[in-house]
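ok so I'm stuck.
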Amino acid sequence: MTISSEVLRYTAFTRDPQGGNPAGVLLDATGVSPSHMQQIAADVGYSETAFLVPTGERTFAVRYFAPRAEVPFCGHATIAAAVAYAERAGDGPLHLDTPVGRVEVTTTAAGASAGQLVAATLQSVPPDVKELTPDDLTNLLAALGWSHEDLDPHLPPRVAYAGAWHPILPVATRSRLAALDYDFAQLGELMALRGWTTVNLIWRESPRVFHARNPFPPGGVVEDPATGAAAAALGGWLRALRLVEVPATVTVHQGADMGRPSLITVGIGALEGSGIDVSGTAVAMG
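replied:
not stuck anymore, here's the structure
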């Protein structure tokens, strides 16, 4: 099979081209320099573009670039790339060597329209969860224009990792999550200082259903409509803090407040330290 060297445009965690999170995908980036990758990502303008270099049978080295900077891992661009590849080469396993380690991905035809709609599941690298210092929490809330009273007293803020670091801030009400209007420069400066990729703002509708919003100023993007890496980190946070009985499947709704509704499925295994599964569909954009 000849892999396309053109930049493809897919939107992940949706069945509708008008929903989900758009990603650029270059299935064969052989010979493309990092500086050129950065320029391509800036030209594409999506929150991330994935660049794959074939290294073996269904095996790729992968790098991810936002319009302003390289990021260590991107979930939605991984799902988009896996679906784009499966539509051209057939479904099955993919082995992705990312900057944070090996990420295994499986793709399958989804629903009644086999061959037209493909779903993908990635398994993250082992997650980690750390304390969020009081000063960092105060500075985050100040940049968001929130107060401590806006937070859910039953869900502790933390910083979580499953390929990229994300502060997790649980809010008490859906209306607080909907009213997001933050200081882009102030939040971006704090995130760059701490090495955070996005801030995962969440509201718990029920024990296994969450709503999320993800500001992404370090990448030059005001907000992500769907953030697979943050969803994986959320799964690690839920397991580490024993906020859900494992094994568990959790649903994350994201992007609705932006007019790009997304649906992310998070599989949390019972084995402490095991990777978190993140699943969703992706479709080509017109």
